[in-house]
Design a protein that fits this description.
This protein is about 50% helix and about 15% strand. The chain has about 375 residues and is α/β, with parallel strands linked by helices.
Length: about 375
């Protein structure tokens, strides 16, 4: 019995230590996120022609709005848009046709090609579209991304900096109405984004995000095009590493694009967040383990439970939640959004922590209605319909 009590006490103290370290991390992230977005975005010295490549799949509630944001750029150079689907009957094409009606002046090319080259269907879609891209500067952006009117000019400005071979962007959540989309957006704003900014400041993160990948065609050719990435789960991370491997830099400008949060149920939210968490685990196992420090409130609650509700455990929990609230306020200010939804933060923290724990349990992920197994190199198995 004494041995059991000693074990529980050790667990309580371990959870307390993780919570305290997490509080320190949270305070640092609160400062760093403001500094990151306070920097000035780069302005280009010229406006070369740009091709925007957007792989599409299925209808999304904000798809037309997000696509329109790319057609409303304050960019004086020529811009070509290439939209691609695998299925000629894909519902996403309805939004593209409406986009063409709303923006008749836009240079839009639509590709429907069933060609598949590996289990990563997004990369296969891009490979099918690339022969139709006319310009040297290429911007790849996911279908659920929305951007501001100066997006292209700032990307080109970053790409003109010496040694820069690729530009990528952090992102914020743009939730559909409802509880689950708001929970998803909270996870993006107060877990993902602070983690990226802190990792960059400490030199521990080497990110590249599929929400935006901008590079020159010559750089793409140097890394072998997209064929080397048809089996990667985290193809965006692999592309960034390939660019760094040829001696070029990956730049991240001080603004965020929006990412649509459309999860209408708990099952959809868990599936999406679990895929994201297992993706990180596959490409950066140590970094994924270290991200435990992003969960001080959850560890503090575990400390309260294992300490039998000790007063010092409750004190740590109160400090942890206070630190998380400060981080939320700083993140909201940096992203220029309202400070609403404080009540949602502790719920989001607990859900995201549970998903973090679950991410160690399997290498299986769900993506676009397909099930995959991920090996130790982050490569996908053949997919099967679900």
């Amino acid at each position: 019995m004494n041995g059991a009590h000693e074990f529980v006490a050790v667990v309580a103290y371990a959870c307390a230590a993780c919570a305290v370290l997490g509080i320190g991390y949270t305070i640092a992230a609160s400062v760093l996120i403001g500094r990151f977005f306070a920097r000035a975005a780069a302005e280009p010295g010229s406006f070369p022609p740009v091709t925007v490549v957007k792989p599409l799949h299925g209808s999304e509630s904000a798809l037309l709005h997000n696509l329109s944001s790319f057609c409303e750029q304050r960019y004086p150079g020529p811009v070509q848009f290439v939209f691609g689907v695998h299925d000629p009957a894909d519902l996403a094409l309805q939004a593209v046709h409406e986009l063409q009606r709303l923006h008749p002046q836009a240079d839009i090319t639509v590709i429907a090609d069933t060609g598949l080259y590996g289990p990563n269907r997004k990369i296969s879609n891009i490979i099918n579209m690339l022969p139709h891209a006319r310009h040297e500067v290429l911007v790849f952006a996911d279908s659920d991304v929305g951007v501001g009117p100066d997006y292209l000019r700032h990307l080109v400005g970053e790409l003109e900096k010496p040694g820069v071979g690729l530009v990528t962007c952090v992102y914020r959540g743009e939730p559909d109405p409802g509880f689950w989309p708001r929970l998803s957006a909270a996870a993006t704003h107060y877990q993902f984004l602070p983690g990226v900014v802190t990792g960059l400041a400490l030199g521990l993160a080497r990110p590249c995000f599929g929400q935006t990948i901008a590079l020159r065609r010559t750089t793409l050719e140097k890394i072998g095009g997209f064929m080397p990435f048809v089996r990667h789960l985290a193809e965006d991370h692999a592309i960034g590493e390939a660019v760094r491997a040829i001696g070029e830099k990956v730049a991240i400008p001080p603004f965020a694009v929006s990412h649509a949060c459309v999860e209408v149920s708990a099952a959809q939210l868990v599936s999406h967040e679990l895929r994201w968490s297992r993706t990180i685990r596959s490409v950066d196992p140590l970094g994924h383990l270290g991200s435990a420090l992003m969960h001080p409130f959850a560890f503090a609650l575990l400390d309260v439970a294992f300490s039998g509700g000790a007063s010092w455990g409750w004190l740590i929990a109160a400090l942890a939640m206070s630190a998380r609230f400060v981080l939320k306020l700083c993140a909201d200010r940096a992203l220029r959004q309202t400070h609403s939804g404080l009540w949602l933060l502790p719920i989001s923290d607990i859900v995201v922590f549970a998903i973090f724990i679950a991410s160690f349990g399997s290498s299986r992920v769900m993506w676009r209605g397909f099930s995959f197994e991920v090996d130790g190199d982050g490569l996908l198995s053949a997919a099967r319909d679900e």
